[in-house]
Amino acid sequence: MNVIADTAATSLDRAARAARAAARTLARVPGPQRDRALLAAAAALRERSAAVLAANAADLEAASGLTEAFRDRLVLTPARVEAMARGLEEIAALPDPVGRVLSEWTRPNGLVIRRVAQPMGVIGMIYESRPNVGADAAGICLKAGSAVILRGGKESLHSARAIHACLLDGLRAAGLPGAAVQIPPDADRAYVGAMLRASGLIDLIIPRGGKGLVTRVLEEARVPVLAHAEGLCHTYVHAAADPAMARTILANAKMRRTGICGATETLLIDAAIAPSLLPLLVADLRALGCDFRADARAQAIVADLPAATEADFSTEWLAPVLNVAVVDGVESALAHIARHGSEHTEAIVTADESAAREFLDGIGSAVGMWNASTQFCDGGEFGFGAEIGIATGRLHARGPVGVEQLCTYRYHVIGTGQTRP
User: Fold this and answer.
1) Using CA atoms, how far apart are residues 80 and 235, in angstroms rounded to an integer?
2) How does strand 101-106 pair with strand 112-119?
3) The pTM is what?
4) What whole-number distance in Å separates Cα of residue 340 and Cα of residue 244?
């Protein structure tokens, strides 16, 4: 190990041990005390909004050659700072997830067995570019009784520090240890490697970012990982779709914010309605600045659509580019999604309930939508207050990960003197 990596490992070891001690405190304090920290942090974000925006401006000035999608993820506005504060308040208003009795039963011998929610312990959050992720993740972890180490991207370092200062204000106001929410001292990439190797110090790693980051974490981590793949989301316009609804939903699903993982990347349209509806959908999105990649059947209907390659249908554009394919019914749509999707979010637009059920039952994705925009795949929209990420794996949580999903559980067994024969 070189000197830089050794320094990062030493720094992480110190931070993780402090976080472990803070996590023990968080697990024992009453829920209202954690809520006070969240509310005070929200107030601090509002009070320090100008400082947070100035720090973000410094990040934007230092970063050069940004794509429009990357800049959209990095930039903070007064509305986005307010959304961070409001998100913390919404998390505070949720029921306390810690100590919930998830289930209870009595055995024939009289033993009462309870499954009880408990905090994870220490969370390591590794994310890129979006500085608001730090506030959301800290809020969810605190509500769930866990400490968190936040490692944001180097591009958002100034923003992360300004937001962290507000979170520390909240912890101090509630009499909670500052080590419950920590950020690295600098943007040293070796710190990420130290987090991934911190088995026994960090209980769960959550990466949130591009394919490169998630792949590295999954390949190198010696700590359990709660990860999501790319957001290769599809909207399928079924033969029984209401045309006006389909036009409204698709425009939102693709163009509301093109740089988020819940944005639709591929339109699948049923061959039965494609000749009449596809030209209207294309015109709507072109008016909003969207470009296209289309299969041969779509090109036969709208001749000036650029041709799509097979690779295009497996590309998360995170930009105003939409793949288009014409399909023959639900099974054809499901086959396309199975071949190209990332099991994130899929939507069907239809007035046919049986077709919707067939679609929703047939996808393997974490979230299925019926007559709604894929951009509703969001913790806040699900009523979670915020989210720490979208999980697409098959173990533990799936979909938006909120405070309940960030808890594990233990068993309490209550007896009256029973012994095992």
Assistant:
1) 27
2) antiparallel
3) 0.84
4) 27
